Amino acid sequence: MPSNARWLLPLVLSAAACASGPRPSAAPERFTSGIDPRFPPSRYVVGLGQGETLELARHQAAASIAAQLQAAIRATDWIASETAWSQGGDGVATSGSERVLQEIRVETRFERLSWIRTADVLVDGRRVFVLCVLDRQAAALELETAIEDQLSIIRQRIEGAADPLHLSALAHEVEGLRRLRTALLPQLELLLTLRRQASPSPWPTGGEAEARLASTRASSLPPELRAIRVLEERLQALRRAMVLQVCIDGEGDERLAHRFGAALASAGLRVAPCADEIAGGWRLLGRYQARAIPMRNAGGFPFFCSTRLVFQLVDRETGEVAIGGSERGRRAGGMSPGDACQASLELLAAGLARAVGAGDDVESR
Q: pTM of the prediction?
């Protein structure tokens, strides 16, 4: 069973009817309190479960452990109802009770259920009680190895971004590093949870994961993540310094370069007319195409338009082409061909800004 699979733990107990009878004896205290001298809380996380089958009981105990490790638990309680009934017929009266345990689904992002082992089992009547444990030290050692493997990949990516890179290449590297960081942060939080001793004060929840780590465990934040922040700041500095001359033409539209430049500015770029004399910066050379299509759908836009730009991004100082290619604007609707094509042009500009590495993104705002 792969450890990186995402688990859905369904706790399902089908409706069962049982006649009134003697109640089962009480389970030993360790199955109700979770206190067992064999498993001190400084070393183990204990989870309890019960059900009509061993598998159901194990799932409930595993969900309890996952919840203690700050996994995303959507439901943890059993929903139960008990109804008394009587029936008479032919002078014969019968009575009984019916206990219905409804279905519960527990969804967790805890991906390492192999860490959890069943330590004790009790079968009492028609109920199964289990006590499961997770060894903090053993789990932390295994997780440390996995984290170090990921940090090694991050270090390699950071070293590759250390050499001077043009804006689009650096933006691509930073985007990849952000994805690696996003995957790593929950594992760092889990490692800190495994390492800490049992404490009455709960582990903080909510807010950004990195901010939580930085404020509560600043010394535990790996230097690789701080190096990513340095690259992000470098990227932002390049973006602020970038000036793009817009030199595009197409379809005889004399104001095309102006309209496209305005759309690029809205997408986060600093732009200048093609005729301006500027020091350094980049020149955007391109051929623009637009295609408007009349529509006959009642109640919808009467026109739709799609746009396309074949472009090159040229370093003004060296004359080298940094990137080139084709960018398309998604089809957009409007009340006139001009409105529809303008809407598609703005989508095209936003896509081009991201392609050259200068577009705004959520993490940098």
A: 0.60
What's the N-to-C CA distance of the chain in angstroms? Answer: 40
DSSP class of 28: P
Question: Is residue 258 helix, strand or coil?
Answer: helix
Spatial strand order in the sheet of 321-334:
271-273, 244-249, 282-294, 303-315, 321-334
Average pLDDT, the chain: 75
Residue range 227-264, pLDDT digits in tens: 998 998 888 887 777 788 888 887 667 788 888 888 88
Q: The tokens of 35 are what?
A: 């206190």
Helix (H, G, I), strand (E, B) or coil at 225: helix
Closest CA to 286 of 316, 314, 320, 309: 309
pLDDT of residue 71: 54
Question: Residue 209 carries which DSSP code?
Answer: H
Torsion angle, CA of 163/166/170/171, rounded to 10 degrees?
180
The rounded distance, in Å, linking the Cα atoms of 154 and 164 is 18
Secondary structure class of 214 (helix, strand, coil): helix
Q: What is the pLDDT of residue 268?
A: 75
Q: Two tokens at 101?
A: 């345990």
Alpha-carbon distance of 177 to 155, in angstroms, equals 10
- Tokens found for residue 266: 């809205």
- Residue at token pair 């465990």: 217
Confidence of residue 209 (pLDDT cuts 50, 70, 90): low
| C-alpha to C-alpha distance for 27 and 145, rounded to whole angstroms | 39
What is the CA 337 to chain-centroid distance, rounded? 39
- Write out pLDDT tens, residues 3-50: 443 443 433 333 333 333 334 456 788 888 889 999 998 899 999 999
- Reduced to 3 states, what is the DSSP secondary structure of residue 363? coil
